[in-house]
UniProtKB/TrEMBL annotation:
UniProt-listed GO biological process terms: phosphorelay signal transduction system; regulation of DNA-templated transcription
SUPFAM superfamilies: C-terminal effector domain of the bipartite response regulators, CheY-like
This protein's record includes keyword DNA-binding: yes
GO molecular function, one term: DNA binding
Keyword Transit peptide included in the entry's annotation: no
Species: Methylogaea oryzae
4-aspartylphosphate PTM positions: D57
Domain HTH luxR-type: 145-210
Protein name: DNA-binding response regulator
Domain of life of the source: Bacteria
Record InterPro entries: CheY-like_superfamily, NreC/VraR/RcsB-like_REC, Sig_transdc_resp-reg_C-effctor, Sig_transdc_resp-reg_receiver, Tscrpt_reg_LuxR_C, WalR-like
Family matches, as Gene3D superfamilies: 3.40.50.2300
Keywords: DNA-binding, Phosphoprotein
Record-annotated Response regulatory domain positions: 6-122
Amino acid sequence: MKPTIRVLLVDDHVAVRAGYRLLLAQSPDIEVVGEADCGEEACSQYWDRKPDVIVMDLTLPGIGGLASIRRICCQDPRARLLVFSMHDEMVYIARALEAGAKGYVTKSCAPDTLLQAIYKIASGGTYVEPHIAQRMVAQAITRSGNSPLDSLSPREFDVFCLLARGLTAHEVAERMRLSYKTVSNYSTSIKSKLDIHTGAEMARIAYQHGLVDDAATFGPPASP
């Protein structure tokens, strides 16, 4: 008899977590032992529940998905964490894997893919959705130099993505459960690191990295 794989679900939407539960319930070898709706709760639940695999979204309130991955993996290098996200942009994938995630699949994948990823990671392996793995190889071959976004901390990266999509500092603060002053400080630091001055410039950089669909949505681009 196979040992049961204990899974912790981390997503800020109750309905989404309920869907995960239904999917994972199809496997007699998987048991959902806990749920969390933010980064802080995910870190707490990890130590309380001792799951074999954490299935985590990246877009979370609180400290956010990337910072949560880094915190858990720094505290326990043996942690097995699978990102299950709507984001398929390479910058998200690279940051998640660099933070310590053992796998990455998108929410558009087939249900069997998620189950396959959980089994692989629980057994000590790694799993990246095949089409993402192909893009990673292609990018490794063609990429030269570092991205300016590499200088941003996980928290700064989260703030950058939201601001670049047109959210105000107040809206970002509400979504991330931070104070307006904290978000303003992050914004100042981000602009300094990227050597930019406006939201339009943020949007343009985000567009260049595939993080937004249309930089023009947020105003005219800055002069070259």
